[in-house]
Amino acid sequence: MILMKKGTLLKIVGATLFAATLGLAGCSSNSSSDSDKTTGGADKTLAVIIPSSDHGWQAGVNYYANQEVKKLGLKNYKIVTSSSVNEQASQIDDMISQGVGAIVLQPQTDEVSVAAKKIVNEKIPLVVFDRKVDADYTAYVAGSNPQIGEKSAEKIGDELDGKGTVAILNVPSSGSVSAERTDGFKKVMKDKYPNIKLVEMTADDFTQEKGLKAATDMLQSNKQVDGIFSIDDESSIGILQAIKDAGRKDIKIISGAGGDQSYFKKIDESTDITCFTATYSPSMIGDSIKLANDAMNGKKIKRNNIIAPTIVTKDNVSKHFDSKSPY
């Protein structure tokens, strides 16, 4: 056995630890990406934290998130999904502990605000998508629900020459989404098309089945309906089925909202009824990722980014087709 003085031993141990630390500092965790492009923050990881793909629109968010990181050529990124507020909060803690360079967060609900504040406190750029949180985020990206209602009202009002009866779809379970879209619609109708009568129908959620049921009940109660303001594309598909099942020929126009590929096909194939939609596209997650990447690389970014809807009709629907998109 070789004996050493205490001071000499400490020096050797210290030098060994220092060398090991240098070795670890050169390591990075890369996620799967086929692109060979690089960015200024190539040594940093961008995290995208979103809810699970439990329905069409959310599946679209996941799809477009993966498309965008590949388009940007990001080599270090993580896309994680959650099914609850607690799971998402835990994922946020994990990303913070891993020292990621920026985070894109689509909150489960505003209850995740406490976890979001931790991101801000760690001075990690935070881009919030779709739903706001009570935190001093770096940027916020979302569509405009009021404008969906307003633009749809103008389209329907003009198509009907300012007269007739229009049914409005309400989906209270969607919270502010339903309220903002229908309020915007009613305001324009009152101001610009006062001679159009409005009737209400209510669905439990944004699905074809619930849209079918709501429209079936509404059509039974109203012998004449000239137009329908639907606030969701999937609901609109169900409503079209209800019109077909009832053999109704009075409906001239129906709206949608979102950007569902299945409804785009309905728009393209429509003949007797004018079908259109106002976009609230899941592809907006791409804008969020771009901003987060810029912030991660030290660039200044715009804080509030509200993306106006595009009215998609038979004339321009072909520009929006994406055969690979799940929504």
From TrEMBL:
It comes from Lacticaseibacillus camelliae DSM 22697 = JCM 13995. GO terms for molecular function: carbohydrate binding. InterPro entries: Peripla_BP_I (IPR028082), SBP_2_dom (IPR025997). PANTHER family: D-ALLOSE-BINDING PERIPLASMIC PROTEIN-RELATED. This is Periplasmic binding protein domain-containing protein. Residues 47-300 form the Periplasmic binding protein domain. Belongs to the bacterial solute-binding protein 2 family. GO terms for cellular component: cell envelope. It is found in: Cell envelope. It holds the Pfam family Peripla_BP_4. Residues 1-25 form the signal peptide. Keywords: Signal.
